Amino acid sequence: MTLLILGLVIFLGVHSTRIVAEPWRRQTIARMGEGAWKGAYTLLSLAGFALIVYGYGQARMTPVVLWASPTWTRHLAALLMLASLILLVATYVPRNGIKARLHHPMVLSVKIWALAHLLANNTLADLLLFGSFLVWAVLSFRAARGRDRAAGTVYPAGTLLWTVLTAMVGLLAWVVVSVWAHGWLFGVKPFS
């Protein structure tokens, strides 16, 4: 469990600099240079992510069950993941109405992903992993919206074509993940 916690602290800590230390972040980028900042950010993120994956895998071998998890929660989580994957795709597809309306679909995707997995899972490691990401996503979304308001950020309007394409690619990703990839990667089939 220690490696999972350490990984979460490193990964979410790096990803929280804009939430809790934006002036320090800007000063550090000015001092180091953008390339060096991105390099250090990437290395720390990868190290944190590796610790999360390894630590969570180790914690799953000796789970500490906190509550009973009915089967229907896995099905609800799988359905919530449809929205999460559409939002994830909306992050990258230009001029889609989802991003135009919500502004930060990646963070909303993480929020729904974490909530879905909290509903479906019931161990201490799950609570630490998905609960940490959920709290981070809530704080990150709030901070990002605040930065947008302060900067007067205007997002380009979306088009119907790109919005429909976004939803279709998200749906396809959801089918691939829920039918095949989740079971192959994590040993859990959402609809079984």
Summary tags:
9 helices; 2 domains; 0% strand; mainly alpha; 192 residues; 81% helix; globular; single chain
Estimated share of beta-strand residues: under 5%
What class do helices, strands and sheet pairing give?
A: mainly alpha
Q: Flag low-confidence runs.
A: none
- Global shape: globular
Order of helices and strands: HHHHHHHHH
Taking the alpha carbons of the first and last residues, their distance comes to 28 Å
Instruction: Write down the overall mean pLDDT.
Output: 95
Question: How can the largest sheet be summarized?
Answer: none
Number of domains: 2
Number of DSSP-assigned strands: 0
The level of helicity is over 70%
- In angstroms, what is the radius of gyration? 18 Å
Number of helices: 9
Describe the 3D structure:
- The protein has 192 residues and is mostly helical.
- It has two domains: 1-62; 65-192, no CATH class.
- It has helices at 2-14, 17-20, 22-32, 34-61, 71-92, 97-102, 105-120, 124-151, 160-186.
- The relative contact order is 0.14.
